[in-house]
Amino acid sequence: MEKFPVLSSVAAPFPQKNVDTDLIIRIERCTGTPREEIGKYAFEMARFRADGSENPEFVLNQPRYRDAKILVCGEFFGTGSSREMAVWALAGLGIRCLIAPSYGQIFYGNCFQNGLLPIVLSSSVVNGLMREAEQGKSFEINLENQTINGAIRFDITPRRKKMLLEGLDELGLTLALEPKIAAFEAADRARRPWIYPA
């Protein structure tokens, strides 16, 4: 995974509540679409008209938000199906950080496994950030300090913080412990050789 440094980007306002994974990526796109191509189908039903042209009213099609790496979202973002491809689609679109009052539980976990930072803040704080996003302001997300714009603090577990800072998924975290695992095994083999087959 790509490491999560300090992220500076314009933030796109996406106030819709109860955005489910089917809106993020249609189920038909989840089979046969290579992971590296799935981003172009993110929010397909909202981003494009029936004739395939861009919907100019969709926030990420608007010029000042086209390169946004941050979405400020309404509550219960990423509910519904547990499809991991929803996170792949957002990442493929260039999104690195989400800010919302709440998320679908499985979606929330999938974000960390795929290099996205889903920040949880109170509705009142998110509403304030939404207003700033609507004004086209840039945000700075400092994961090391756990701050937005140097002032708003957010919580994250140490394990998940380490994953994002170092660009590791769960398997990567385990592999990073390989020297300690090997040292334990060598010491244990010396203490209890009968457990290890010749």
Q: Please report which band the strand proportion falls in: under 5%, 5-15%, 15-25%, 25-35%, 35-45% or over 45%.
A: 5-15%
Helix-strand topology string: EHHEHEHEHEEEHHH
Structural class: alpha/beta
Q: Please, how many domains?
A: 2
Number of strands: 7
Low-confidence stretches: none
Termini separation: 38 Å
Round the mean pLDDT to the nearest integer and report it: 93
Rg result: 20 Å
Which architecture of the largest domain would the CATH scheme give at its second level? Alpha-Beta Barrel
In CATH, what is the homologous superfamily of the largest domain? Aconitase, domain 4
Q: Looking across the biggest beta sheet, what order are the strands in?
A: 4-3-2-1-5-6-7
- What's the CATH class label of the largest domain? Alpha Beta
Instruction: Summarize the main sheet.
Output: 7 strands, mixed
Helicity range of the residues? Answer: 25-40%
Tally the helices: 8
| Structural shape | globular
Could you tell me the CATH topology label of the largest domain.
Answer: Aconitase, domain 4
